Each structure stands twice: as C-alpha cells, then as structure tokens.
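Lab manual, section 2.4: Encoding a predicted structure.

Procedure: take the sequence of the chain (159 residues), apply the prediction step described in section 2.3, and record the output as structure tokens. A sample record is shown.
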Amino acid sequence: MPFYENVFIARQDIAGPQADALADTFAAIIEQGGGKVTKKENWGLRSLAFRMKKNRKGHYLLLNIDGPSAAVLEMERNMRLNEDVLRYLTVRVDALEEGQSVMLQKRDRDDRGERGDRGDRGDRGDRPRRDRGDRGGDRGGERPRFAERSEPDSEGAAS
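Recorded output:
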C-alpha cells in the first residue's frame, strides 16, 4: 500500500486533548478504509504565518498513513467538513520516517540548557569608531552639492 504523511491544523480555541481526539477520529476513518496510522504526533499550539478564519494560532498534528488512496480521500473529505480543521495537507511519500519528525527534534534541541560561559568576546575597543558624519572617502564627510541653477534670461533660456 502507498505511504502518506498528513499534517493538519486545528483551531486554537480547542484544548490539546480535543486536538488529539480529532486525530484519533481521522485515524479511525483510515482504519475503516483498510489502512493503518503508523505514527501520530502532536506538534502543539504554534503561531500561524497569517490569520486563517480569524485564528492566529493552531494545533499542528502529523499522521503517518499506510493505506489505500480511497481511505485518504475519505479522511480529507471529513477534514473539509469538520469546522475545527483550518487547513490540511496530505503528501504521498516513498517511505515513512521512523522515530521523531524534524519538528519534534527541533523542539528537543531548543529545550537544551544554557551554553555556559562563551568567553570574552571583547568590546571591539581595538577598532576606531566612525562618527555618524564620517562617510569615508575623499569628500571629508560633506554631502555632494547640486549645481546651482541660473536664472532664465528674458527669452526663457537658461544661460
């Protein structure tokens, strides 16, 4: 059977356990269609790149699916009908990932402790600071001046 990865975003005002229950209902639809969900991951409540249906945040969930395309289509149909689902994306993949996804690995990396003493970085006192007016070059900090306009003579031509 083909492999699929499905990521969907649930509304921000449902609770975390409700988002997990939503993933369980979609997994049950896949299992009724003859497939199986090999992995369910809750990536948590994350900020959206832009507002979707008046929501600024959403619960992100990942489903790894091993099942027929008819079961995936039925799950997507139910996602469209469910008002708690803001967006979804299903992608067919050659093989399913084992272990944690990249998003959860990133969270583990961010949870590590302090880096400790980074040493003296210096106050950059060895380099002279330029004043705001000093632009460098041979102009000496002056702005270039525009050529002055001459008054037009009586015939309207400039001299």
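Check your result against the sample. Residues 3-94 form a domain with the Alpha-Beta Plaits fold (CATH 3.30.70.60).
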